[in-house]
Design goal:
Blueprint lengths: L3 H26 L5 E5 L3 E4 L20 H15 L4 H5 L6 E3 L3 E6 L11 E6 L7 H14 L9 E5 L4 E4 L2 E7 L2 H14 L11 H12 L4 H8 L4 H11 L13
Antiparallel strand pairs: 1-2, 3-4, 4-5, 6-8, 7-8
Helix pairs in contact: 1-2, 1-6, 2-4, 2-6, 6-7, 6-8
Length: 256
């Protein structure tokens, strides 16, 4: 059974991979504007081109309409892969990021277990293929830079253009970061979109999902703790135990 965080992230993987794989196959096997009957007299596959987002949504529209989607994808991907608490995730600033050959290093200046503010560095490597958290983040940062934003919060609200950094077509970016509550609502919304109970998800689901999935993949505890920032093995194991209470549950199937 997939963990909550893996389910949320898998939605992103499925959508992007399906879009890219279908485009690759069609581009290699079909002529432009050619149609292939899939279900006779009911459904045909036609090769056309447009400049819209995935599946041709918003074709021909200004890129500003697709920016909220890019923010969401970046937020979920970075939150999951970095195993961040929601408070840490929304507190990431552009100046906290260092892009290197292997990926991106995120500096976390303060966290729940670091009240002295010593800070820690979290490494997020490039993925072998898309969707890649680092490339998604770089794309979003490039858009921020294009709007004249070179410092401050990475994840911001997109609103109707009354003030702030104009994106075009009546949209603008605010100066303030998303709240932890907003990040939690994003996770709940996308969990609901794939048929899951949103009340069982929240901002912590990305972090707990990373930890439990890593345990299932037999990643050494020390490596997981370095990513999550846990300092105590005892606390970490209790954290994983609570998050994976239904993994390998002996009660499964009893009432079949």
């Amino acid at each position: 059974m997939r963990t909550k965080g893996k389910i949320v992230f898998s939605l992103l993987v499925f959508i992007i991979l399906l879009d890219q794989i279908s485009k690759f196959i069609v581009d290699r096997t079909m002529a432009l504007n050619h149609s292939i009957p899939v279900i006779q007299n009911l459904f045909s596959l036609t090769y056309i081109r447009n400049t819209g987002a995935a599946f041709g949504i918003l074709a021909g529209s200004d890129a500003a309409y697709r920016l909220p989607i890019l923010i969401v994808f970046s937020l979920l991907a970075i939150g999951f892969t970095g195993a961040f608490r929601r408070s840490e995730l929304v507190a990431i600033n552009i100046e906290h990021l260092i892009f290197e050959e292997e990926g991106v290093v995120v500096f976390v200046p303060r966290s729940k277990t670091d009240q002295e503010g010593v800070g820690r560095h979290v490494g997020i490597p490039y993925a072998a293929q898309d969707p890649c958290p680092v490339r998604l983040l770089r794309t979003w940062i490039a858009r921020l830079n294009h709007c004249g934003i070179t410092e401050g919060p990475v994840f911001r609200r997109v609103h109707r253009a009354r003030d702030g950094h104009t994106l075009g077509d009546g949209l603008a970016l605010g100066d303030k970061a998303l709240t932890g509550e907003s990040a939690a609502e994003v996770v709940k919304k996308y969990a609901q979109m794939i048929g899951k109970d949103p009340t069982q998800f929240g901002g912590h689901s990305l972090r707990s999902g990373f930890a439990t999935q890593s345990i299932m993949d037999e990643v050494p505890e020390a490596e997981i703790m370095r990513q999550t920032g846990h300092k105590s093995v005892v606390v970490f194991r209790e954290y994983v135990r609570r998050a994976s209470v239904f993994q390998g549950n002996a009660a499964k199937g009893i009432w079949k």
